[in-house]
Design a protein that fits this description.
Layout lengths: L6 E5 L5 E6 L4 E5 L3 E4 L3 E7 L9 H14 L5 E7 L5 E6 L4 E7 L6 E4 L4 E5 L3 E6 L3 H6 L5 E6 L3 E7 L2 E6 L4 E4 L4 E5 L3 E6 L3 H6 L5 E6 L2 E6 L3 H11 L14 H8 L3
Length: 264
Amino acid sequence: MNAHEIDYKIYGDDMQFVEIELDPQESVVAEAGGMMMMDNSIAMETIFGDGSSKQQGGFMGKLLGAGKRVITGESLFMTVFTNLGHGKETVSFASPYPGKIIPLDLSEYSNKIICQKDAFLCAAKGVSIGIELTRKLGTGFFGGEGFILQKLEGDGMAFVNAGGTIVEKTLAPGQRIKIDTGCLVAMTKDVNYEIEFVGNVKSAIFGGEGLFFATLTGPGKVWIQSLPFSRLADRILMNAPSAGGSRTGEGSLLGALGDMLDGN
C-alpha cells in the first residue's frame, strides 16, 4: 500500500466534520484552511502539490504538480498534517458549507475517482490530487464546473464535500441518467460524462434549469448532490438586502410598502 493507512470517524448530520486518527509518522493532506482542530503532537507543513510519489521528481516536478492545481482554481499549496508523537493522535477537517462528507476508499474504485474541482477536502498522504481533462470541448465550455475536473488517484482514503442530500447511484453498462451539471459531485473513472443541450430554445430560456445538462453513461458509480454551493450562493445573493438597506423580508407584504415609503 502506497498511501498511509488512516482511520476516521465522521461527526454531525448537515454540518459535518471528519476526525482522522493518525499513528506515529502517519500523515494526511488537506486543502489550505480546511483544518478544524488537532491534537498537540500533530505538526503542519505547507508543501507544493500533494506530496504523493507522483510528485517526487525534484523541485520542478513538484512545481508542475502545484501549477496544475492552479488551473482547477485551487491554491498552489497544500498542507500536510503529520503525527510526530508516540501514540495515536487526531486531526479534524470541517465541510465549508451545509451538506455531507463522502469517504472514498480509492482501492475499491480501481484507484481513481473523478470529482468537481472544489469537492476535495482531504486524503491520506500518498493519494495524488491532479487534473482530469474532459473528453470533449463542449463538456469544458458548458459543463458548469470548468474544462478541467479533479482526479484522485491512489490506494488510500480520500474525502470530498457535497451540498444538501447525497444520492449514490450505480449505473449498469449502457444505463444513462441526466442531471444538472452543478449537481455532479464525483464518479468512477469508467463513467462517460457528456454535456447536452436541453432540447429547444423555449425550454432553455423559460425552463429555469439552464441551457445544458450532464449525461452520464455507465458502467460505474456516481455521487450526486441536491444543493450545489453555487446554487446556494446565488439564492443568498438574490435575497440579500441592497446596499441602501431596503426591506426584503421573505413572504412579507410590508416589504414593498416599506420601500415605497422610504422612496425606493
